[in-house]
């Protein structure tokens, strides 16, 4: 099975061949590296930019204005902050111009902890991104969704922020991408650049790739359950699934929902689940103050209060200035499997 | 009709024809009167904020007249700033749009009552939406220019901003991205230098002799020109544009201009003494050269003043956007 980086690469290949993607660019996105996480290796429209994040976002806006379809990368979400006013402009251009201009552009950026990235390669961007209206914001937690969400992003008329959970980029999926070869090794041989001299290398893309799309705004129940609802996305999603599986043997039956899209998001799916279980835990790793999960908690309280059997809970990253490099510091800063298991168990057994 | 009289200055290689001089004067007056009306509307409480470009007409009118107007990469893109009503009028825009934007009416063609005066947007003519954060347009210009380079033809991207804003990194981004070796982009990078950043004089902020000098470090052709003379501005713009169209490379043009009514309504929007008035200067020349009489010029100004007043009265009666329209156009939808 493809890993997430390979899935994104295949989706981008499909998009540049079939969906009109004209430019995939960013720092070290083109040859020879093909992106720090290899997500852009061998793509024909990939090119390297100056080390200038504002220039990258500005270029994407300009290209989108002129009828091109750009996919811009910010190497790490930690470095996207100096473009925040440009992100605001990209988000408001359609609205501010009364519908005159729209910007079909994708900005992809790796986010979050899990690769021992220290202070400047571990930041989350979900709370900030969801604070900028006019964007659509997605974050996959497995290679198949990564593929399908990228296809949707490249079909959009509007700016899409594509958040890539760093910790999951090299993990193989459980479901095959339509058109992906049966054998992992043969996939790697076809599309992974060799180490060393790559100047003569060309990828051989699987011929059967398709426009398999995960619609933006649609979440997914990844584990049905009846006692408690767990809502997550990105790196913490597979941890929530594992925690739920482990808890099943001790009589706690948790339903796990992968949001996949943070904006717009699938409230109907969350609502239906919470109405069924009466208990909900939101899990993400962005810092806990003004966290996107807080919005979900607020909405849960306002709309579902009388259906609840316990207060809605949020398990998020600690409100500290960064994720420290030492393993102990990172583990203590963002939710780990044990934290999630404990939180689900506590919520499932909470009595008024 | 008599043969057009040609103006000849000693330094003029190719004099401008009378018709063009008259047309530029007409547009300069129209733009000046429009801005004065906008200021009046603000002062009468028919708008919350004014910002505009009285004092920059001698540069902005030739710019609009020289642009290749149309939609898509075959035509010129303009990433303007908020002092360019004269450019829009020279392109053929009707002044009532600016008045509607000032009054925030539902009929405001640029933003539907959502944005400040001078914040133009017109996709049909490749006018990118003007945004209030200064200089951000400089980072976007290489994007449209790359599309044009790819497209072929002679369409160029024109980006304008003020001198104070060149301190922002976006200006440096534009220089870097438009001059990458082998990937130079057809961008006419314009800085209109009025020597002020709100209340701060440029002399206290910029170590460089001319803003244009910064282009030299990037091997970008540069020039600093007198932007208060429309004939000079026409010639210099034409030359710079022809270079960008032909060579598909950037050109950095710094135009020295005036700021006749201060920064914006935030600084009072009152006429400022000591600034050169490009319109008065041009009229003196047209008079001396026998192109137009004082009576002709006065009557033109009166006519536009009456027209703008009538338009302002019309706009005053137009409704504001309905509150439910806040939900419109958050996203573009496939039709």
TrEMBL record, chain A:
<dbReference type="GO" id="GO:0016491">
    <property type="term" value="F:oxidoreductase activity"/>
</dbReference>
<dbReference type="Pfam" id="PF02780">
    <property type="entry name" value="Transketolase_C"/>
</dbReference>
<feature type="domain" description="Transketolase-like pyrimidine-binding">
    <location>
        <begin position="2"/>
        <end position="171"/>
    </location>
</feature>
<dbReference type="InterPro" id="IPR029061">
    <property type="entry name" value="THDP-binding"/>
</dbReference>
<dbReference type="InterPro" id="IPR033248">
    <property type="entry name" value="Transketolase_C"/>
</dbReference>
<dbReference type="InterPro" id="IPR009014">
    <property type="entry name" value="Transketo_C/PFOR_II"/>
</dbReference>
<dbReference type="Pfam" id="PF02779">
    <property type="entry name" value="Transket_pyr"/>
</dbReference>
<keyword id="KW-0786">Thiamine pyrophosphate</keyword>
<protein>
    <submittedName>
        <fullName>Branched-chain alpha-keto acid dehydrogenase E1 component subunit beta</fullName>
    </submittedName>
</protein>
<dbReference type="InterPro" id="IPR005475">
    <property type="entry name" value="Transketolase-like_Pyr-bd"/>
</dbReference>
<keyword id="KW-0560">Oxidoreductase</keyword>
């Amino acid at each position: 099975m493809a890993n997430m980086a390979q899935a994104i690469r295949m989706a981008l290949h499909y998009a540049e061949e079939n969906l009109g993607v004209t430019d995939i660019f960013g720092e070290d996105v083109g040859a020879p590296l093909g992106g720090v996480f290899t997500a852009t290796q061998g793509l024909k429209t990939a090119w390297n930019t100056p080390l200038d994040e504002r220039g990258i976002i500005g270029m994407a806006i300009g290209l989108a204005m002129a009828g091109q379809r750009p996919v811009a990368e910010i190497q790490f979400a930690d470095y996207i902050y100096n473009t925040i006013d440009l992100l605001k402009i990209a988000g408001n251009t359609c609205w501010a111009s009364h519908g005159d201009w729209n910007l079909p552009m994708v900005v992809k950026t790796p986010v979050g902890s899990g690769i021992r990235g220290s202070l400047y390669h571990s930041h989350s961007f979900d709370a900030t991104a969801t604070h900028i209206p006019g964007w659509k914001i997605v974050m996959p937690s497995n290679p198949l969704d990564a593929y399908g969400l990228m296809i949707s992003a490249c079909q959009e008329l509007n700016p899409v922020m594509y958040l890539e959970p760093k910790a999951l980029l090299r993990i193989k999926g459980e479901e095959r991408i339509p058109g992906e070869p049966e054998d992992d090794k043969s996939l790697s041989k076809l599309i992974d650049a060799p180490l060393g001299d790559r100047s003569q290398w060309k990828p051989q893309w699987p011929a059967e790739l398709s426009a398999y799309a995960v619609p933006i705004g649609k979440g997914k129940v990844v584990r049905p359950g009846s006692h408690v609802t767990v809502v997550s996305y990105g790196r913490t999603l597979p941890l929530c699934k594992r925690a739920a599986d482990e808890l099943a043997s001790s009589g706690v039956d948790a339903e796990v929902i992968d949001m996949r899209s943070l904006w717009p998001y699938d409230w109907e799916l969350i609502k239906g689940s919470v109405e069924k279980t009466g208990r909900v835990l939101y899990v993400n790793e962005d810092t806990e103050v003004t966290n996107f999960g807080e919005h979900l908690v607020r909405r849960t309280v306002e709309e579902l209060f009388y259906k609840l059997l316990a207060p809605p809970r949020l398990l998020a990253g600690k409100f500290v200035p960064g994720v420290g490099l030492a393993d102990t510091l990172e583990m203590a800063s963002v939710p780990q499997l044990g934290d999630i298991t404990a939180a689900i168990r506590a919520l499932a057994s909470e009595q008024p | 009709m008599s043969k057009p009289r040609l103006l000849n200055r000693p330094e003029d290689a190719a004099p401008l024809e009378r018709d063009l001089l008259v047309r530029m004067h007409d547009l300069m007056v129209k733009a000046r009167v429009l801005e004065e009306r906008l200021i009046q509307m603000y002062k009468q409480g028919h708008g919350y904020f004014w910002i505009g470009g009285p004092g920059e007409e001698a540069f902005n009118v030739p710019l609009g007249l020289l642009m290749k107007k149309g939609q898509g990469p075959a035509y010129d893109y303009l990433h303007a700033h908020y002092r360019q009503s004269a450019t829009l009028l020279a392109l053929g825009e009707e002044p009532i749009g600016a008045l509607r934007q000032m009054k925030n009416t539902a009929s405001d063609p640029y933003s539907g009552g959502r944005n400040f005066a001078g914040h133009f947007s017109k996709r049909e003519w490749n006018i990118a939406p003007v945004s209030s954060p200064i200089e951000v347009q400089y980072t976007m210009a290489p994007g449209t220019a790359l599309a044009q380079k790819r497209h072929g033809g002679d369409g160029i991207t024109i980006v304008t901003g003020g001198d104070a804003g060149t301190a922002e990194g976006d200006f440096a981004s534009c220089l870097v991205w438009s001059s990458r070796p082998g990937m130079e982009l057809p961008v006419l990078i314009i800085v209109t230098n009025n020597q002020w950043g709100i209340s701060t004089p440029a002399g206290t902020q910029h170590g460089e002799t001319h803003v244009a000098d910064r282009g030299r470090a990037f091997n970008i052709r540069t020039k600093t020109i007198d932007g208060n003379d429309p004939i000079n501005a026409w010639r210099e713009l034409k030359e710079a544009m022809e270079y960008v169209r032909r060579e598909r490379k950037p050109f950095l043009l710094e135009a020295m201009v005036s700021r006749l009514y201060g920064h914006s309504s935030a600084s009072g929007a009152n006429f400022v003494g000591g600034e050169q008035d490009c319109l008065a200067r041009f009229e003196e020349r047209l008079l001396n050269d026998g192109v137009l009489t004082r009576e002709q010029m006065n009557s033109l100004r009166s006519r536009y003043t009456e027209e703008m007043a009538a338009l302002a009265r019309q706009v005053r009666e137009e409704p504001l956007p309905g509150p439910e329209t806040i939900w419109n156009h958050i996203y573009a939808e496939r039709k």
